[in-house]
Amino acid sequence: MAEQETNEALQNALALALVEHPRASLQELACAVGVSKATLYRFCPTRESLLERLQASSLNAYKSAIKEANLDTAEPREGVRRLLENCYKNKELTLFTIQHWQPELLENCECIQMQEKLDAFFLKGQQSGHFRVDISAAAITECFHGLFFTMIEAERLGRVPRTRVLTIIELVLMEGVCTQSNSPS
User: Fold this and answer.
1) For the chain, how big is the Rg over CA atoms in Å?
2) Where are the alpha helices (DSSP H) in 71-177?
3) Helix (H) or strand (E) holding 24
4) Packed helices 47-68 and 26-33: angle between N→C axes, nearest 10 degrees
5) pLDDT tens digits along 22-64
6) Which residues have CB under 8 Å from 17's CB, separation 6+?
7) What is the separation of C-alpha 70 from the centre of its chain, rounded to a whole number of angstroms?
8) Is there a contact between 118 and 76 (Cβ–Cβ < 8 Å)?
9) Distance in angstroms between the alpha carbons of the first and the last residue of the chain
10) Calpha distance 27→38 (Å, rounded)
11) Could you tell me the fold of the domain covering 54-182?
12) Of 11, 24, 72, 88, which one is least surrounded by beta carbons within 10 A?
């Protein structure tokens, strides 16, 4: 395994360990992820630096997920599918960010730019007739985030099978939860 893949695997394991054991010490986290205390200290010498590193990695993973989905050229359903698949690759970092949320993260320019890219994607889908126009593109972006966050947490808790998470999110986002015959007119 290449060093970058090893670091990503360790980051994801540490992010999940912090979700499951939010008050764990570095020693406890090292034990939880199966590395030595020395290995973890080389990775991040303090708990604070670990939290900062995971937060930065989470933002970078989110940016990469959006970029690699090619939302500027993607057909709407395919764009949603690629975006979901890309975000899911680092779901542990997302779970960490949810649990360790800080409102000032919304003020981050990069975070705002990513949000604007999603808004533009959903607006383009509205203009092409693929997405509802009675819900703003910004609201659809928030629905996307909410569904993703909620479903990966439900998976972690064992309420939703891993194999169905992305399909469920896509179906609910793209088609809603009403059957055709029960949809409001």
Assistant:
1) 18
2) 76-88, 91-99, 109-127, 137-156, 165-175
3) none
4) 50
5) 999 999 999 999 999 999 999 999 999 999 999 989 989 999 9
6) 24, 29, 32, 33
7) 17
8) no
9) 54
10) 9
11) Tetracycline Repressor; domain 2 (1.10.357)
12) 72
Please give the single-letter amino acid code of residue 34. G
Residues 6+ apart with CB under 8 A from 61: 87, 89, 90, 93, 94
Angle of helix 76-88 relative to helix 47-68, nearest 10 degrees?
Answer: 160
Give the amino acid at 165: V
CB of 87 within 8 A of CB of 148? yes
- In this structure, what token pair is assigned to residue 149? 């966050």
Domain boundaries, the chain: 54-182
Residue 117 identity (one-letter amino acid)? K
Handedness of CA 106, 109, 111, 112 (dihedral sign): positive
Average pLDDT, the chain: 89
CB 34 within 8 A of CB 112: no
Q: Which two tokens stand for residue 60?
A: 């970078």
Per-residue model confidence as pLDDT tens digits over 66-115: 999 999 999 999 999 999 999 999 999 999 988 887 666 666 778 888 99
Please name which of 72, 39, 181, 60 lies closest in space to residue 111, comparing C-alpha atoms: 60
